[in-house]
Amino acid sequence: MLEGYDLDRLAIATLASHSSLQIVHGAKKEGFETLLVVTEDRAQFYRQFDHLVDHFILVGKWRDICSEHVMRSLREHNAILIPHGSFVEYVGIDCALSLRIPFFGLRSLLKVEASQRAKMELLRRSGIPVPRDFPPGGEIDGLVIVKLPGAKGGRGYFVTSSLQEVVERLETAIRRRELNDINEAIVQEYLVGVTAYIHYFYSPILNRLEITGADIRYESDVDGLKRIPPRALAELDLEPTFTVVGNIPLVLRESLLPIVYEYGARFVNTTKELLPPGIIGPFCLEGVIDRNAGIKIFEFSGRIVAGTNIYLDGSPYSYLYWDEPMSVGRRIAREIRLALERGVLGKVLT
Ligand code: AMP
Predict the structure, then answer these.
(1) Are 198 and 214 in contact (CB under 8 A)?
(2) Residue nearest atom 6 in ligand 1 by C-alpha distance
(3) Domains of the chain, with CATH numbers?
(4) How far apart are CA 297 and CA 288, in angstroms?
(5) How many C-beta neighbours within 10 Å does residue 61 have?
(6) pTM, two decimal places
(7) Who has the most CB within 10 Å: 109, 125, 173, 176?
(8) Distance 27 CA to ligand 1 centre (A)
(9) Residues 6 or more apart in contact with residue 215 via CB below 8 angstroms
(10) pLDDT digits (tens, 9 = 90+) for 197-207
(11) Candidate of 242, 289, 301 to mutate for ligand 1, largest count of ligand atoms within 8 Å of Cβ
């Protein structure tokens, strides 16, 4: 895919959403050209940042990125695409897999990420503690969270301890065609504790794993419920959603760091084994920490997460590795720069 590319004039490219401003900001700091693919309705907002963006490609809809003329234009700019958390959601998995533009990151992980079950299996095979899983419609033991496939941002999830409710609601979902088969649903132990989203960066060039930060997702309605007195809550009859509206910084207790580091290292090793060459760059393990400081991971993201936007100037951890402001956006560009200098760009692209 690098054939015909001018390696002295690479452009770091992404879709204008999610963490794109952080990505182009970091790329500029590392001396790269930058490119944003933007839809017309967002163009005015993003043009404010034209000091960070050298090239804009305007599209009618995100999927146009897979059209011949947009792909040609990306290639003419020697674009390396940074797929962020919204990328697959916007362009679709088929477009993402077939796009003939080099990706910074592990493209084959996208397929795993398309299936909740495959994701949990990858975590399990890594030896990372995960919540218990119950067969949909089968016996449960305590509080469970039920996840329907395609439910975005936790909307459509429900929490219950009643098997009857699980069965009834899954049957309703089938009638409404939100579900083809009961086995598509995930019935998972509801973890009691506090949520933590831990950001990592694996460098194939330096052959090291870095913890780049942590955050808490601020989710509506669940995070607002504590503002309502319990009596009123009982009367409200509300099915709370987990819609992410923002991110809050989190600095972990230092004694937790070796544990989460070990989880990250296990994840890296499993991806190397099952999906060679293995994870490249940023990823996130999403978990709940309980009262005994036990950590279980209920989800992962194989790319830059929006929680890193908090640390545009570096996080308390990135300072320890780099002693200079190092956002994850900049860290991506630094990795590409290091790979270029060593003549091994192919090591960070798929
Ligand atoms: P997800 O779509 O898997 O990222 O989940 C959305 C939100 O649901 C998370 O950010 C958590 O707040 C919550 N959640 C998901 N799985 C669990 C679990 N097993 N136990 C407790 N909360 C969970």
Answers:
(1) yes
(2) 154
(3) 7-103 (3.40.50.20), 132-189 (3.30.1490), 194-341 (3.30.470.20)
(4) 7
(5) 11
(6) 0.95
(7) 109
(8) 32
(9) 197, 199, 247, 248, 249, 250, 305, 307, 308, 310
(10) 999 999 999 99
(11) 242
